[in-house]
Specification:
The chain has 171 residues and is mainly α. The chain has 4 helices and no strands. The termini are far apart.
């Protein structure tokens, strides 16, 4: 039951940022969903929809990893107890926020919304600053050499082309 409550809280948190805030921006800026009335709007609608699906998939996958592998959530009050270096985390260190950013960028495209694009930039900037000055030093304290090795081999934002495998012979 506790796992269910953690998962539910995590989903509510993610939906609030990626859907509720985005919807609020769309409503107050009087944006409307694009229609296929030109090639450009058709491309934006198609690409935006694909980005939303990809972003949502990453959010779901990474939240599941936080719960199952990390034994925690994305919420700072219940952080993962284990360092997650499996799956998509072998390619990039922050796939959860990349998923959220991908989803918001897709929303910005399908609504042709400058406000959503600004939200995208703000979330990226705030998270970058947070990762560099708070999260990464905290993860270094919590997980020590394992996190430092991971950080030195897996990029923060742009995924590796190949999966990183920990070299167990270096211990």
């Amino acid at each position: 039951m506790r796992l269910f409550i953690k998962a539910l809280f995590t989903v509510i948190f993610a939906i609030t940022i990626t859907v509720v805030v985005s919807l609020f921006i769309v409503i107050i800026s009087n944006n409307h969903l694009l229609t296929f009335n030109s090639v450009l709007s058709g491309v934006m609608l198609t690409v935006g929809t694909l980005l939303i699906i990809l972003g949502l998939g990453l959010i779901i996958y990474t939240n599941k990893s936080f719960l199952k592998i990390g034994k925690g959530t994305l919420v700072p009050l219940d952080p993962p107890k284990n360092l997650i270096v499996a799956g998509v985390y072998r390619y990039v260190r922050n796939p959860m926020i990349i998923g959220a950013l991908t989803l918001i960028f897709g929303e910005a495209l399908i609504f042709a919304s400058i406000g959503l694009f600004v939200l995208f930039l703000m979330i990226f900037t705030v998270n970058h600053i947070y990762f560099v000055y708070s999260e990464e030093p905290g993860l270094t304290k919590r997980f020590g050499k394992d996190y430092i090795e991971y950080k030195n081999n897996v990029p923060r934002w742009i995924p590796r082309l190949t999966s990183w495998e920990k070299d167990n012979n270096t211990e």
